[in-house]
Amino acid sequence: MKIEKTLHSRIKKMDFNNIDFGNQYSDHMFCSEFKNGKWKNSIIKPFGNIMFSPTSLVFHYGQAVFEGMKAYKDQNEEVFLFRPEENFKRINRSAVRLEMPSIPENIFMNGLKQLINIDRDWIPKNYGQSLYIRPFLIATNGVLSANPSKDYMFMIISTPTDTYYKYPLKIKIEEKYSRSAPGGVGFTKAAGNYASSFYPTRLANEKGFDQILWTDSSTHTMIEESGTMNVFFYLKNKLITPKFNDNILSGITCKSILSLAEKEGFFVERRNVSVSEIIEGLQTGKLKEAFGCGTAAVINYFKTISYKGNDFDLPNLAEKKRISLYFKKRLLDIQHNRSEDPFGWRVPLKRYF
Ligand SMILES: *Cc1c(COP(=O)(O)O)cnc(C)c1O
């Protein structure tokens, strides 16, 4: 792989005491091109603009998929990735569904590891902080007829992050709009899934809600996800999460919480979750907690769930008593190398140079 290091590092301008997610990018980026049926020209180069033909299919028909993952430091500033294999497999599941080429494992993993190694200094040091990594695959050519592109570009960029969404969320059970539908692309990280959620999310924001609790597209009676997070309910001492299907993205955070919970003897259920049982749980007080989870926010608990114009508040538990925050700490401890890693999720990043 070609490596072109920057001569003008921006790291001195980065204020690690005041991390503004997505506003400062690390010095380098990784690019690899797919042309004539082959992957070629893998390179790490200074972060900067890219140029494609205006006919590129990414601009017209939305052939674009992405991933979200993080690199963490421990107290000795050793660097760790968390289950990167899962992101690798998932971006290729997304790619297949969007009729895009699969990324070879060595290109994904070498690009990722070398890039993060070069930009090590961009990984914040504190507990809960990390470097958010964004791999993405886009169609870079095409003609304006609606056919899949022949050329693609796989890239990785990264941005320092604190754990965001620190406040408890007020969410609304959606009864009109949908994020995904059976047979569709809801299980993929297709860029268009996000585009189509912005409008209903803004409408919800204007009514004072932080996020939407998505329901199934045909009946709006079954719960799917919350915003761009998977969702858990702690109902009658059981930890319940909607079973992954076509409509639900198989989140790595969600899967990790399930594994930890099962190992630690919690009662766990992966099954269809109806709106009516959640409303009943809210009315009877049997729903102790509800929370969303994903790489970006880790875990974010809900304070209010609204349905058909009625706001239902969740019990106002002390933070120490919250199962959501217990699992948040369990995950962060593993990610930051502060506890054992019973499942082998941590991948130490060797120093390559
Ligand atoms: C990325 C994403 C998640 C969370 O997945 P993680 O692997 O835990 O980060 C959940 N739902 C949607 C719709 C997503 O795009």
Q: For the terminal residues, how far apart are their CA atoms?
A: 14 Å
By CATH, the architecture of the largest domain is named Alpha-Beta Barrel
Helix content estimate: 10-25%
CATH topology of the largest domain: D-amino Acid Aminotransferase, Chain A, domain 2
Uncertain spans, ≥5 residues at pLDDT below 50? none
Largest sheet: 9 strands, mixed
User: Mean pLDDT, nearest integer?
Assistant: 96
The secondary structure category is alpha+beta
Shape designation: globular
Superfamily at the CATH H level of the largest domain?
D-amino Acid Aminotransferase, subunit A, domain 2
Tell me the radius of gyration: 21 Å
Function: Acts on leucine, isoleucine and valine.
Protein name: branched-chain-amino-acid transaminase
Catalytic activity: L-valine + 2-oxoglutarate = 3-methyl-2-oxobutanoate + L-glutamate; L-isoleucine + 2-oxoglutarate = (S)-3-methyl-2-oxopentanoate + L-glutamate; L-leucine + 2-oxoglutarate = 4-methyl-2-oxopentanoate + L-glutamate
Cofactor: pyridoxal 5'-phosphate
